[in-house]
């Protein structure tokens, strides 16, 4: 384990003392403290982003301490007080690969060549039992294994670029993409075995040797058992999307501050929550924000087992329900709904993008056409990979299109996945999603994300969809471009489907809505509402 900081003009790194390896959360927090102190005046007036792959560390820092450890609380408060007037400190929870890619742990992973090499006889046995292998995940030009039949070096990932390896640093590579071609071979340094096992389960790319099925309790990782014992709530939050988790953290911090201001314990309580709701309603909070706050605190209470057994949740307590009725009448409720993307405006946009005749134009055109026709959420859209696409031709030419597999979505809590069917458009070829995807595919690899920042590049975050949409609409000359957002694609597709007389049940299935909330997404123009009102005034025949 190591630590690293990169201010504007320098880099600092170092390894930990042996006694510091007992508690990884304490180690990381002490490291953050040392980095802040070592950087000194260079960080004054600056924003420092602390990025961690430990949800426990992130949680302790976000809460300002730990109820279970005075040592952790002391370190956290020391950090926060140090930053109070001079440094804007922000913390972000990220995946393990991001931290690894930063180089913060390179010192602890830099071993000699023999550390990553199994004896050739044992490798040949494994090749015969589980091979052939397509990649040696931990090697170098000096320690790469040879294919038994040809004695040619097996392609490998090394820690450092050496002119021989096929890639650098297995912990930041896309295992799934390579595993699609065959079996991966890994003989990592001993200190990395636990992390490799964890990442293998996360990426779903490692082969389990000799058995299949769930592991018995006696074989569970000790780090997992420690976490389930000491920080169970962090694991219970793994079902939340990243943005939702950060939103709930913010709501919980605000609730804690409110408890301190009124002299109440910082724990979920129905009466305190009701007062919190009313206070927010009288201080110009939006009703939607208040509802998110109640959901966050109610979930906190459920995780801690603090609500009454007779209540289904803290949110259903009679005091909280009454407070929400107060909020409904006094909170800010005027929310400007984003305009749905009409087919006419989409046509203007796509025509402009086609005229660019470059990767960005083809990418954005495909993204908007697919997002509109498939009623995709932005998170679903940026998550599509080329391997998730399958040309659909079972129904004949009239039903030709593309089937897109969505492995997870906002309403898919069980993670079952769903297929989204997007039809081709032969009548108006420039508006055909299938042709747009085929055009985009010519620019880059058939592996990885479909929508990337540049040809062959990395994927996007969901917030990029909305910003790209607004920017392209402005350049294309579409009026009131600021009224559109990424959700305009989903809402516009549903509205167009309803105008095409498609049954509401089918629209709900196409858009992966779990309830009739889909009706809230439909838009009626003023002229349509006036026509309906006029119809009411006609004499009955």
Walk me through this protein's architecture.
It is a single chain. The protein has 541 residues and is mainly alpha-helical. The chain is 45% helix and 9% strand. The strands form 5 sheets. Strands 9-10-11 form a 3-stranded antiparallel sheet, with no helix packed on it. Helix 1 packs parallel to helix 3 and helix 12 runs parallel beside helix 14 (318-330). Residues 1-11, 107-115 and 204-212 have low confidence and may be disordered.
Write the layout of secondary structure elements.
Layout: E1 2-5, E2 12-15, H1 24-39, E3 47-52, H2 55-63, H3 70-83, E4 88-93, H4 96-101, H5 106-109, H6 120-130, E5 133-136, E6 157-158, E7 167-168, H7 175-179, E8 183-185, H8 193-203, H9 222-230, H10 232-236, H11 242-262, H12 270-281, H13 287-304, H14 318-330, H15 343-356, H16 359-373, H17 378-382, E9 389-392, E10 401-406, E11 418-423, H18 433-441, H19 463-476, H20 487-499, H21 504-510, H22 526-536
Parallel strand pairs: 3-4, 5-8, 6-7
Antiparallel strand pairs: 1-2, 9-10, 10-11
Helix pairs in contact: 1-3, 11-13, 12-13, 12-14, 13-14, 15-16, 15-19, 16-18, 16-20
């Amino acid at each position: 384990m190591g630590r690293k900081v990169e201010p504007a003009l320098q880099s600092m790194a170092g390894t930990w003392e042996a006694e510091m390896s007992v508690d990884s959360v304490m180690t990381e927090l002490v490291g953050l403290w040392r980095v802040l102190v070592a950087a000194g005046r260079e960080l004054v007036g600056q924003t420092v982003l602390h990025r961690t792959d430990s949800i426990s560390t992130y949680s302790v820092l976000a809460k300002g301490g730990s109820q279970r450890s005075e040592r952790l609380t002391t370190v956290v408060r020391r950090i926060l007080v140090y930053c109070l007037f001079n440094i804007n400190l922000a913390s972000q929870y990220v995946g393990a690969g991001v931290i690894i890619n930063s180089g913060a742990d390179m010192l602890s992973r830099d071993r000699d060549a023999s550390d990553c090499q199994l004896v050739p006889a044992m490798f040949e046995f494994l090749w015969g039992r589980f091979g052939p292998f397509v990649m040696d995940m931990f090697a170098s030009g000096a320690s790469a294994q040879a294919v038994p039949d040809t004695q040619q070096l097996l392609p490998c990932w090394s820690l450092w670029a050496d002119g021989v390896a096929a890639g650098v640093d297995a912990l930041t590579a896309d295992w799934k993409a390579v595993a699609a071609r065959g079996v991966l071979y890994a003989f990592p340094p001993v200190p990395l075995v636990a992390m490799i096992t964890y990442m293998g389960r996360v990426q779903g790319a490692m082969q389990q040797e000799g058995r299949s099925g769930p592991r018995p309790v006696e074989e569970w990782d000790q780090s997992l058992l420690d976490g389930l014992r000491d920080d169970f709530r962090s694991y219970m939050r793994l079902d939340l999307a990243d943005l939702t988790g950060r939103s709930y953290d913010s709501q919980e911090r605000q609730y804690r501050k409110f408890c301190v201001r009124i002299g109440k314990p910082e724990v979920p309580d129905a009466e305190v929550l009701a007062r919190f709701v009313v206070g927010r309603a009288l201080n110009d909070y939006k009703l939607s924000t208040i509802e998110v706050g109640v959901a966050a605190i109610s979930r906190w209470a459920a995780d801690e087992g603090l609500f009454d057994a007779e209540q289904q949740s803290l949110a259903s307590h009679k005091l909280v329900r009454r407070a929400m009725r107060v909020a409904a009448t006094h909170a800010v409720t005027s929310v400007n709904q984003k305009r749905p993307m009409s087919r006419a405006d989409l046509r203007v946009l796509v025509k402009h993008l086609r005229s660019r005749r470059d990767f960005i134009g083809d990418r954005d055109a495909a993204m908007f056409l697919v997002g509109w026709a498939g009623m995709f959420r932005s998170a679903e859209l940026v998550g599509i990979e080329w391997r998730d696409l399958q040309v659909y031709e079972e129904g004949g030419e009239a039903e030709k299109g593309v089937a897109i597999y969505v492995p997870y979505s906002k309403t898919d809590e069980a993670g079952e996945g769903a297929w989204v069917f997007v039809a081709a458009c032969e009548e108006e070829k420039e508006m055909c999603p299938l042709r747009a995807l085929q055009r985009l595919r010519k620019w880059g690899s058939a592996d990885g994300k479909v929508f990337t920042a540049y040809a062959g590049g990395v994927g996007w975050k969901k917030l990029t969809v909305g910003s790209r949409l607004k920017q392209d609409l402005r350049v294309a000359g579409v009026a009131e471009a600021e009224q559109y957002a990424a959700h305009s694609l989903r809402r516009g597709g549903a509205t167009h489907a309803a105008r095409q007389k498609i049954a509401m049940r089918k629209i709900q299935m196409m858009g992966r809505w779990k309830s009739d909330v889909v009706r809230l997404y439909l838009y009626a123009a003023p002229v349509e509402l006036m026509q309906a009102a006029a119809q009411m005034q006609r004499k009955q025949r």
